[in-house]
Amino acid sequence: MSLTNDQVTELAREAIKKMFTEQGPDFKFPADVIWQNIRPGVQIPSTARPHQPKRLMKEGLLEKTGAMAKAQSEARNGSSTAEYRFGPSLVSRKAPATPLSLANSTRASDLLIRLQSKIESEGYAFSVAELANFYLAMMVSPLVILSGISGTGKSLLPRKFAKYAKSEFKLVPVQPQWSDNSDLFGYVPTLCPSEYIEGALITSLVTAKENPSTLTITLLDEMNLAPVEHYFSDFLSIAETRRRDAGAIVTDSLPIELPKIPTEPLNKYSYLENIGLPHNLRVIGTANMDETTHSFSPKVLDRAFTIEFDDPDLTSFASFTVTAEEDFSKLADLIIDAKNPISIQEAYQNSQALFDEVAGLLQEVQNILSPAGIKFGYRTRDAVLLYLHFWKQLGLEDIISANAALDFCLLQKVLPKISGSGDQLADALSTLTDWLKHERTSDGNAGAQTFLGPFTRSQKKTERMTSLLDVDGATHYWGT
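Below the sequence we write its predicted structure tokens.
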């Protein structure tokens, strides 16, 4: 006799409560452990399992940690899957303090959870951890790259965020023939020296400058159809000059070529003179990594957060549940708050213990990769530290666990630098994989208790890169 959906859910409830009694409130597990704790003699069809965790999450029996775990069932043993813990119906957890305050005491994590539900109600499947990761990347960097296979929502995510956070949004399709900064910033025609032809980024620059209290998102669609470092190098260089001046965040002026002879009306391009990168502008680039596109140079990778959408869960369906209308503009306001630290010097006082711990872990990774000639510098370290600073200060621990937060950083800021061939690289990848899968134990020191591992997302990537190296004799980050 086949079981109904409600009967399967009831069996899952029983299993969750059994696990809670036997394992305690801090137990973390992949979803397939639930089915290993079903009462004896009952077989749950595999087709009835994938959507059950969502039902249990709505009842408060489960919640995702944001981390990944290894599946334990015979059919999926060892594959990477979402990690869960017991939900608020079983465990009462103290809400983390949020020094970065929101109006009306609304927590950023609560807004992100509801925003994820709003996006999912339209039929698009992004986990709250993926949304929070994208959000933290925008907190840290003016450039975020979304890479991966077609049809995974790379263009959709920034568009939906801008829509619901009441931000300005501009789509800029990149053209294969772009070869220098004039395509973004404009130029003066040789035969008409009193005229200026606008570049693709000018509208966004002016919009952001004229509306400093509103987040402006520009989507560079298919940004690597042309070599990115050719047409985008000036943006990257100017972004590096971000600094604080009398409390405001400013940059050097962009190299915008304007007419040098008088124009009619007089000085009609004055609004572009000495314009820098507005602090409220975020550029989101999408990239498909295939034979029709260009790879990213180290200069680009150093200055961007690169989020890869390459492993969609095809068994996961959006809920299509109608949600109430809500204003998410507070999330955008936090991103562009001029009081946010833009350097680790500004954040160090509030995050000293966290910075010291993470810097030590990054040094361990550096020591593993150095024999293969792979190194990363202060810019990468500082981006990771700022990401984790905002993760802590915004109180996002309840939707992205500490391990998951650092895992995202390693995956997005360190691993893209790995490529090449040879035995030394193979040895480094093997050692790094072992380091990533290792679960550390706290030694009782207050500064060494936060990030215990394993870092499963990064481990999965290094295992794939190792397999590619074994088969092809060379490896790279993209698409593995």
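The domain at 106-309 is CATH 3.40.50.300 (Rossmann fold).
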